Each structure stands twice: as C-alpha cells, then as structure tokens.
Amino acid sequence: MHAYEVVAILLLVSVLAADIWVTIAVSRSVYYSRRQKRIQVCIVWLVPLAGALLVGVFLYSQRDNPVFDTRAYPEPSEKATPITIEASLHGHGHGHGN
Questions:
Q1: Interacting residues of 32 by C-beta distance below 8 A, sequence separation 6+
Q2: Alpha carbons 61 and 53: distance in angstroms, whole number
Q3: What sign results for the dihedral spanned by CA atoms 6, 12, 15, 17?
Q4: Looking at CB atoms within 10 Å, which of 51, 52, 57, 93 has the fewest?
C-alpha cells in the first residue's frame, strides 16, 4: 500500500467519524425541532467535511445560551425577533404577567 493510499483512507475515516459525531450531537441536541435536526443532518452528509464543520461549530456556539433555543418558536410566524428577544431578556413579555 502506498503512502497516498494510507493518507486517503485516513482522510476518509476522519470525515466519516466527524460526520457521525456531528450527526449524534445534532440528534441529541435540545435546541432544534425534528425538522431542523433532519435538515442539519442532511447538510452534514450531503457536504461531508464542510457540513460537519459548519453544523458542529454552529451547534457548539449555541450551547448554554437560552436565546438560541429554537424549540420555543416552531412556526415561521412565531419566530423570535430581536425586539422580542431583547424584551424577554429584560423580563418583559411572555410568561411574566405582561
């Protein structure tokens, strides 16, 4: 086996491992609806390396930040706007008796 074949196999295994890892992380995430999870997993597998990097970094950046919890706004008409998010961060709006 030539060195380039070994490198190619290692790259392929690395990309597959990254895709699998990000797929599992997205599937276990509490930040996304089912539809969002399906879309992100499709991105990971249709664009193997770049998809895994983009989705993985995006998922990592959203951890521990309730503002990015998109489950609360499943419908397009119910998406949070910057004004809604700002008001909720300061205790105005939904769930605070206002």
A1: 26, 40, 70, 71
A2: 12
A3: negative
A4: 57
Cα–Cα dist 6/38, whole Å: 33
Would you mind telling me the total number of residues written for the chain in this entry?
Answer: 98
d(CA 27, CA 22): 8
Tell me the CA distances in angstroms from 88 to 56, 81, 93, 94, 96, one per residue in order: 27, 11, 6, 7, 9
Distance from C-alpha of 52 to C-alpha of 81, rounded to nearest angstrom? 28
Tell me the pTM. 0.60
Q: Where are the domains of the chain?
A: 3-64, 73-98
Amino acid at 80: A
